[in-house]
User: Fold Methyltransferase from Rhynchospora tenuis.
Amino acid sequence: MSKTGALDLASGLGGKISKDEVKSAVEQYEKYHVCYGGDEEARKSNYSDMVNKYYDLATSFYEYGWGESFHFAHRWKGESLRESIKRHEHFLALHLGLKPGMKVLDVGCGIGGPLREITRFSGASVTALNNNEYQISRGKELNKLHGLGQSCEFVKADFMKMPFPDSTFDAIYAIEATCHAPDVLEAYKEIYRVLKPGQYFAAYEWCLTDHFDPTNAIHQKIKAEIELGNGLPDIRSTRQCLQAVMDAGFEVIWEEDRAESSSVPWYLPMDKGQFSLSSFRLTAIGRLFTRYLVKTLEYVKLAPEGTEKVLSILETAGEGLLEGGKKGIFTAMYFFVVRKPL
Assistant:
């Protein structure tokens, strides 16, 4: 039920940004980043604007090429990417012990692919938190199409300032979402606040590994490309994330970099040298087709001016993620399960 056609891609481009303002929005977004003279402090102080611009511009491309769940996955040989993504989501639900009757929070839900899968898998009721209006409207549309209008709800809010009373939820999860936080400790503190005592929070985090060398120019270039291509204020290390979740008050039950046990590299979808019929649009041929499609759509004015620039930003992201993964300096699946003490 994802948007899969050329006209669907064109109609969604820019999200809630008016079509005649897409080009200027892309240029404003670029200026936040190192590659275009920006700096970390500007990204952190303007994180809400930066992240909203990013998802307004990128969401239609994500859905066109990736499907409804915008994240990577632990992989086994013989699995399609979509099968791996589903198992990745089921793995998280199992470790949280989700079951019918539980009230669960999805922090930074995208268009709701994971929450729909997790709701069907576990029977839990999921509240989806997102600060991007376009993604929420698309998520609500998909929930209705999937028949999940009653068991899931979307709330538009910043996860740094959640509109929920203390101790509201029976479980909380975040899938590659709190990497957008300007201050991860404050984000974890807010999650701690709305979680019931004795209950669990689980997350997949984007992190730098111990192999990252801040004095290495190539490593810094890769980091900057990932930040530009994915709307990130900064990228923390696995050690920083672990320390932050403990400083927020949580007890650590389990933590590991799931990338290390993945039989198939998590970054393989970014490798143009790979071919897959089930993920054709991620292959070199599929990406070339998308490039020409976007140029054509923009030329005939079915897609707004600036669309091709958005695609270039996402291609930069793919290159950074691929190189970061190959060099072992970046992981998209640092995983932890933590508990709020009684």
In short: The mean pLDDT is 91.
